[in-house]
Design goal:
Pfam families: HTH_3, SinI. With about 120 residues, the chain is an all-alpha fold. It is built from seven helices and no strands.
Length: about 120
């Protein structure tokens, strides 16, 4: 979850919710809702502001776990994760909602079961 990742990154940097909101120039209430997964569909602009304030890339926020030997990911897995992250950003930028994406996935599952 993106909100959980933002919270973890904020806490790693020992920033309060208010401090991060101020540094990023976003509403504290919106940031709080993101971290608690009440609001779960952030704009790319919001992610860019938060990533800049946390001194990380947007990819670092989108990815749950960094790829390393301990996680068992290979170079190909990392490349795939970056491709998925780019696809998610592209979908978000084009205005595709999470619900629309879920409907698309459900349709594809249904279509695969029909074959």
């Amino acid at each position: 979850m993106i909100g959980h990742r933002i919270r973890a990154l904020r806490q790693e940097r020992k920033l309060s919710l208010s401090e991060l909101a101020e540094r990023a120039g976003v509403a504290k209430s919106y940031l709080s809702n993101m971290e608690r997964d009440i609001q779960s569909n952030p704009s790319i602009q919001f992610l860019e502001k938060i990533s800049e304030a946390l001194h990380v890339s947007v990819d670092d926020i989108l990815q749950n776990h960094p790829a390393d030997a301990a996680s068992g990911q290979t170079g190909n897995d990392t490349a795939l994760d970056q491709q998925w992250a780019e696809l998610v950003r592209e979908a978000m930028n084009s205005g595709v909602s999470k619900e629309q994406f879920r409907e698309f996935l459900e349709f594809n599952k249904w279509r695969a079961n029909q074959k």
